[in-house]
Amino acid sequence: MMTPSIYSQFLACLYDQAEPVGDLGRGTHYSVFRSVEWRDLDGDFRDSGRFHDFAIVWDEDHDTRVIAFAEQLHMHGLLWPIVFIGERKGMLTVLLWRDVDPVRERSDWFDVVKELAENAVECDVWKADFGRFHRDPANRQCLTEPAGIISDSDELVVAYLQVIDVLWQLGEKKRAVYKPITLPVGII
Asked: 56 and 70 in contact (C-beta within 8 Å)?
């Protein structure tokens, strides 16, 4: 068994395709990461952390600088609604869960994410674009908006994203909710 790469001290890499696989886009491949989040999908704070899995979709150059962007999102508490992050040709694409509205909890969410993208890496400015992901393996409802995360037809891109989600069940992991610690009265 191959040990996944270590890209970050904050994000655990669960799965890593180090180079292009197949013939989609311009050398498309992906990695799956896990973070600990303190918000639920409604944006409400939780008493305890929970696991949140998301995928980074790489193009042919496997530009690991996108990790700095993901770390910034994590450290600013903005990663919780994100399912996919992609980088290609100086553009970061962020796909959020279809029915999640991060603006409900933080009105400047999109603006802050754009600013983090522009400043994530020294000597380079990335623009951020946003789309939506809807879990629907057969894509019957056609609700996923891939926003150019991969340079190929939307039908193929959405199928690829759905396969990744089928394999990894991205997003909030309900099984990883921990009960808060309750101290006896008078301890503190």
From this structure: yes
